[in-house]
Amino acid sequence: MKYSNQLQNLGTETAFAVSSQAKQWANQGNKVYPFHLGDINLPTPENIVEATIKSIKDGLTGYCPSEGILPLREALANDVGAKREVEYHPDNVAVQPGGKPTIGKFISSVMDPGDEILYPNPGYPIYESQIEYQGGRAIPYSYVQTDSGFDIDIEKLRDSINKDTVAIIYNNYQNPMSAESSKKEMHDIAQIAIENDLWVLSDEAYFEIIYEGDANSIVSIPGMKERTVILYTFSKKFAMTGWRVGGSIGPKEIIKRIAKFNVNAESCTTHFIQNAMVEALNGDQSGSIEILKTLKSRRDAAVRGLNAIDGIDILTPRTTFYLFPNVTKIMKRKGLINIEDLQNNALTRANVSFCTREHFGRAQKDEVDSYIRLAYSGISTEDIEDGLIALKNYFEE
Q1: DSSP secondary structure string, 74-132?
Q2: 28 is in which domain, residue-wise?
């Protein structure tokens, strides 16, 4: 019997590998401070839970339309459109079992084997994985660290475009770097997409994890709504990562194609959960407000703890629940060349688990600095403080 050679091109979400490592260490009786995975250890708001239970009791446990139930598509169209100052309708929405399915279905809808798609690197590793699995060429664009955070290398992105380029994947409020585009940077990307007639996948998973000010979307720029698919997820705002419900929002014709993949992949997203998401969008928002307040408190504690470590100096991002400190000075002080050694030692000597830059796409040849990513969404403020004291002791010894 044989296996498909194509599977060799399929990557993985490498943060889960770090989770396995941390779990093994914990199973040996060790305390683990879990900064590695962007899960959320906060309860889903009660009104959503109650709406879900009611939906089950009401018998909404069978098949439903593959593109999603109409009340949810209406609610998503209204909510997403209003917050981005554009108009969407139900036929602009295809409900998905999570945010991640939008990535693969978008790529399948716009890319043929041999085509090229630009994607952020460091970035969510599933971009690279899905492009290559489907026979495309994954072309990375990179970031440069500045006094204000991380900026996209716009010229490198622009120079990477050729006749085979069909799309740009753009993740503002970015995982793993918490990078946030300035208005100019967002307009530069929009201009590049329009000039080269490219599709854009706008991964907006963290659009509403904003601690100060307002969020911005590239679809608000004239000429972009017609060429952009938004990746939407309920996972972050409502602390429901395991519920697996999200949406693809974009032009009608590409949404029809994405919904066709729904039929082939999962038939439909769970009916009773969809029904409850109408309550999530239209009902009491106090639960999500409390989630955001807790995450903000954790962010502040994590920034304080990291900046107390000799050799680390980071800014306070206003979005996501990740921190991406430069640890080059620490690597040199400890005489380490391989950042995996720093990660492993931090776990066994400080009980602190985190991801590294290498978990978010293949490092490029011109990269010289070393980075780690810490997620503070799945760890209490007290454990953040204690864990970063332990990390400080290890990093400074």
Answers
A1: HHHHHHHHHHHT----GGGEEEESSSTHHHHHHHHHH--TT-EEEEESSS-HHHHHHHH
A2: 5-43+287-396
